[in-house]
C-alpha cells in the first residue's frame, strides 16, 4: 500500500525520537504497519558504515557523551547515507551552546557544526556518516524506553574523564540552585541559604551511570525521588563547584 519513500519518511520520524502514536497521527499510517517496517527495514543499521576509529579527543568526548545522553539524538539524513547528531541547548545558557559546538569539533576535527534556532532553545547539529558508531546508545524511540549501557571503550573514557562526563550530564539535565530555610535564633527567624545540585532523567540506566560516576569521584548524593538526584552536602557541592559549576 505504501511506497518506499513513504516508509522511509515514517521511520525517519521514529528515529528522531517520536512515538509510534504521534507518527501514526501525522502520517495516517497505522502503528502496526510502522512497527513491522522497523523489523523489515532497519532504519539505522549500526554497522552500515566503516568504523571511524576512536574519538579524536577523549576528554571532549566524555563531555559530549553526557550532553547526548541528556539532550541529544541521532537521526538519519532523509536523502543520504549520513546521520545528524543534534544536541538541544537552552537559549538561557549561551556558554553551554559554545561548549557543545567546541566539543563536537574536538571529537571530530574538521566536521561542520551549525545551529538551528527553535523557540526557547537552539539545536546544535552536525552531519557525519559515523555518529551511530560513536554513540552506539542510539536507537529507535526514546532513551528511557530502551536499555542504555556503555560499550567497554566508552566506559574506559568515562573512567578516565569522570568529571567531564558528569559535567555534560549536569549541563544537559541538571542544575545548580540555591535553597533556603529559616531557623529561629534568639527568638527571631533567620534565613539561611545553601547551594545544591540536581540531576533529573527519566531513564533509570542514565541515572545509574550518573550516580556511579559520582561515587567514583567521591561526591555524596541521595535520590530526591525516582527521577531526581540531589547533591547537597557542603563538601560534595564544593567538589561540584570546582569541576562542574553552574551553567552560563
Task: Write structural notes for this entry.
The structure is a single chain. The chain has 248 residues and is an alpha+beta fold. Among the domains are: 1-43; 168-243, Homing endonucleases (Endonuclease I-creI). It has helices spanning 4-15, 20-27, 31-40, 58-71, 94-107, 131-134, 152-160, 162-173, 204-217, 234-243, and strands spanning 72-76, 83-90, 113-117, 121-128, 174-185, 188-200, 222-225, 228-231. A hairpin with a 2-residue loop joins β5 (174-185) and β6 (188-200). The chain starts with a helix and ends in a 5-residue tail after the last helix.
Produce the secondary structure layout.
Layout (H helix, E strand, L loop, with lengths): L3 H12 L4 H8 L3 H10 L17 H14 E5 L6 E8 L3 H14 L5 E5 L3 E8 L2 H4 L17 H9 L1 H12 E12 L2 E13 L3 H14 L4 E4 L2 E4 L2 H10 L5
Helix pairs in contact: 4-5, 4-7, 4-8, 7-8, 8-9
CATH class of the domain at 168-243: Alpha Beta
Distance between the termini: 51 Å
Give helix and strand order, one letter per element, not per position. HHHHEEHEEHHHEEHEEH
Helix % is 40-55%
What percent of residues are in strands?
A: 15-25%
Shape: globular
- In DSSP terms (H or I, runs of 4 or more residues), the helix count works out at 10
Q: For the record, what is the CATH homologous superfamily label of the domain at 168-243?
A: Homing endonucleases
Label the structural class.
alpha+beta
Keyphrases for this structure?
248 residues; alpha+beta; Endonuclease I-creI; four-stranded antiparallel beta sheet; 10 helices; 8 strands; globular
What would a concise description of this structure say?
The protein has helices at 4-15, 20-27, 31-40, 58-71, 94-107, 131-134, 152-160, 162-173, 204-217, 234-243, and strands at 72-76, 83-90, 113-117, 121-128, 174-185, 188-200, 222-225, 228-231.
Amino acid at each position: 500500500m505504501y511506497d518506499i519513500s513513504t516508509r522511509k519518511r515514517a521511520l525517519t520520524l521514529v528515529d528522531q525520537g517520536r512515538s509510534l502514536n504521534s507518527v501514526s497521527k501525522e502520517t495516517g499510517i497505522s502503528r502496526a504497519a510502522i512497527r513491522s517496517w522497523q523489523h523489515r527495514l532497519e532504519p539505522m543499521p549500526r554497522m552500515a558504515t566503516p568504523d571511524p576509529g576512536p574519538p579524536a579527543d577523549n576528554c571532549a568526548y566524555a563531555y559530549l557523551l553526557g550532553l547526548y545522553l541528556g539532550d541529544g539524538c541521532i537521526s538519519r539524513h532523509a536523502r543520504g547515507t549520513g546521520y545528524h547528531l543534534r544536541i538541544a541547548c537552552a537559549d538561557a545558557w549561551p556558554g553551554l551552546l559554545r561548549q557543545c559546538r567546541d566539543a563536537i569539533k574536538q571529537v571530530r576535527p574538521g566536521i561542520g557544526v551549525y545551529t538551528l534556532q527553535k523557540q526557547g532553545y537552539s539545536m546544535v547539529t552536525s552531519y557525519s556518516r559515523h555518529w551511530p558508531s560513536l554513540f552506539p546508545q542510539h536507537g529507535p524511540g526514546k532513551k528511557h524506553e530502551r536499555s542504555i549501557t556503555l560499550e567497554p571503550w566508552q566506559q574506559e573514557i568515562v573512567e578516565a574523564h569522570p568529571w567531564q562526563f558528569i559535567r555534560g550530564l549536569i549541563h544537559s539535565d541538571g542544575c545548580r540552585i540555591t535553597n533556603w530555610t529559616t531557623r529561629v535564633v534568639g527568638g527571631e527567624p533567620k534565613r539561611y541559604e545553601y547551594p545544591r545540585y540536581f540531576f533529573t532523567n527519566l531513564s533509570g540506566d542514565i541515572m545509574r551511570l550518573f550516580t556511579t560516576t559520582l561515587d567514583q569521584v567521591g561526591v555524596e548524593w541521595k535520590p530526591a525521588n525516582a527521577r531526581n538526584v540531589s547533591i547537597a552536602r557542603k563538601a560534595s557541592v564544593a567538589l561540584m563547584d570546582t569541576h562542574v559549576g553552574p551553567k552560563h
